[in-house]
What does this fold into?
Amino acid sequence: MKDLRYFLNWMRQEHPQDLIEIDREVDSRYEITAVLLKLHKLRLEDLPVLVFKRVRTTKGEISPYPVIINIAGSRRRYAKWLEATPETVTNVARERMTTGRKNPVVIPRGEAPCKEVVKLGKEVDLFELPALVEWKYNPGPYINAGGFLCYDPDTHVENSAIIRGWIKSRDTIPHHANHHGHTAHIRRLHEARNKDMRAVFWVGHHPAAMKGSATRIPYGESHFQAMGGLIGEPLRLVPSETLGDDFLVPADAEFVIEGIVPAHQRSPEGPYGEDWGHVGAQRLHPFLKVTAMTHRRDAYWVNFVTGQSPFMIDRREGTYRADIGLRVARMVSPAVLEVRESAIKGGFYVRIKKSRQGEAKDIGLAVLSSIDGAKFAMIFDEDVDINDDAEALWALGSRTQWDDDVTIIAGARGGATDPSTPQEGVSAKAIIDATTPPNFEPRNSIPKEVLDGVRLNNYLPGQFFDSLPQRLFSQLPENLLREIGVVK
Amino acid sequence: MTERTKTAYVKCPKCGEEFHIMAEDFAQHRDINCHCPFCHEEFLPSQHLVSGRL
It folds into this structure.
């Protein structure tokens, strides 16, 4: 079955240099963030998966659970899991989560790895977890790479979303579910009936399963099916311990934390180092009152280090939110070829095969309205490689006039944690149409046969290539490696 | 950018550190304490405002 262990073994076989196990003791408070801040300075395209084996918890104890970070730190790796390329991975992921969906299967409790250790009620102490305190204002350790699972009270269709939860006490987790999202919608359905909501945080699974949980799908569709589509096999589920047999949880997760969200009750949550790179204010949010925690005997804990865009799962993969934008934009126009999250926070690149004027604006509206936190959509012609930020920014500069090509939509739905909004969750958005009109000046080019005929190693000495760091080679396309003689 | 009023700053009466809260949330629930992220003291924000308003 494809779970976190399967992924780690795959990494050992396919990318052994990018799976680094660290024996040195580290503090869960700030130290791993510091490691990532320094690592980021190396400007790596693919971040290595780091496994910290000796993490000191906020209780001051060395945790028995290793901490994994950067689990999704590479678009290239993500593409390889899905048997796609970095250029096609958004399309492939979207297909797997729609036409390729797989129904989950239910297995007995005795066969579920997540039930190897069962702690009920007072036995639970969330502070034993090595959850990270990433930034200075964070009030304590946070679960931020966990799927938050709940069920629609009418249809019993589940929703699983990656949201954050602060471990406030040994059994209490105030959590931030975006007001516009499906988790908050389901909570409101419960509260309208004055009903408490059963819910679970599950942590640690194959990154494709996490992706299937994190992605936005139409309300009422099953994340379990989408997760199965992405991992390429039915997701295995098992009944909960304390929430009833009808509350099914991912059987192959590392940890499952079960509980009740009391209706209408709120707790302070935050401040939190948001992915916008600023400290989000303390808010009043619902909380999970924990009833049980189950986990594997030798469980791994998975955390993100959010708070700076480059570390985010979406930025590195470039697909976290882009795939829903692609799906919706394609409903608007078949001209859409590709959608990609940009290097600029809140920005999305869209590549289209334009056939008529005005098309770009319609597509921009679709992308902006379908992706949470999207502030501007930049629409490009098909010749622009939107997987290359430098090329996209070049086109933005040379193919736009702001008075003509920028459309601003005031007072739209915005990212809940964006510090720049005047009102929480309300934001201006912009469409930047960088497509060219008919009769536009052509792009510089040379004859293809000349370009294809040039091999760099016929011009530059071997010492030049020898001086390039080996890691750079792993980031270059194979045809270029062949050209410079690294691959024969 | 014009001044933003969605947040307010409070000062913890125990440790003296300042942090910001979402004004609208606490204005709607004036009986709920905020939580100092530094020393974990809980207190009513309306009584310890430094800037902004609820």
